TetR family transcriptional regulator
Amino acid sequence: MKEHSTKQKVQHAARELFYLKGFHGTSLRDIAKKANVNVSLISYYFDHKQGLLEALMIQYYEHYLREIEEVQQQYKGKNPVEAIVRLVEAIIHYKQKNHQFTCFIQRELTLDNMLVREMLVTYLARERYVIENAFLDLLESQPYNQMEKKCLLVQFKGMLNSPYFMPHEWLDYVRWDGSHQSFVNHYTKVIRRWLESLYVA
Amino acid sequence: MKEHSTKQKVQHAARELFYLKGFHGTSLRDIAKKANVNVSLISYYFDHKQGLLEALMIQYYEHYLREIEEVQQQYKGKNPVEAIVRLVEAIIHYKQKNHQFTCFIQRELTLDNMLVREMLVTYLARERYVIENAFLDLLESQPYNQMEKKCLLVQFKGMLNSPYFMPHEWLDYVRWDGSHQSFVNHYTKVIRRWLESLYVA
């Protein structure tokens, strides 16, 4: 129990500090102070800061992919609009629930380093597979050419990620009415309308 | 002439290295090596790494805002679809032309530090003003409620930024046919179609 909660406190503090100050801008000492644990305990559990980052990223993506792959399985072969809308809901729900770490990960993934490359070939490739398949299923019988499909995909991914990059901007002037689920519902609705308009093009 | 080209070489190298390795991951020594200039010259021109970053950001935003504010003036009071499509073209054209630094800036702006806060209250506020006005002009006589308008705006901004976050992902599987202008044309076209669909909702 003690070990469990110390680890969790460290992870919680790290997620918040990485989000606010970036990975390089955060020291193990900052994290220890915020989590109110001894700095040596962080090294004991996670080896070093890079190890802590990796553990957090893996945890984030394992849960994320489990959720979206489950939705994919559940709606396989069903109505393509329904299938992709359920997927969008699952994605936005997960990202919103883990708001700060989602923002942080999107920032990290723009870098070119070993960890990012590992994430790209494992988790990001799986995410892409799920999202692209659902999207191309939707467009299949529609009269779009290859280049249009690619641009629509960029557009679609932009919608999925938009609330989580430049978070300051949204916090400031898109004053969501507070509830997590309300945002997920409203935002999914506008994306759904766009997806439907593509389907009947 | 000499001074001019040394400064430019340094700026060029810094833009590329910041993009690849991040601001913290890049040293003045890295930049000097890549630009093939003496490291003391960088300090002479830009004081320190932070000064170099500020100079690059200001340069980027000054040019960017000049271009989009010009378009805004030019299409004031004209057809709202035309006005916003021209704006989208100007934005995508500029971001695409400065691809690496655009990606880098989008990453930096997710941090919470003094420079970012300064950028937010000066340049980002002006950008937001231009983009929001054009977008709300488009929606004005349309039957959307406030919450829908906000969600549509998040969606819209996602489209504008999508090609420039997670650049690895796009480089890898969206193989644009090489030409800068071709991408701007195709991508603007799909955004235009979306904007038109909102206007006749």
Q: What stands out?
A: Chain B has a mean pLDDT of 88. Chain B touches chain A through 50 residues (CB under 8 Å). The two ends of chain B are 56 Å apart (CA to CA). Chain B has ten helices and no strands.
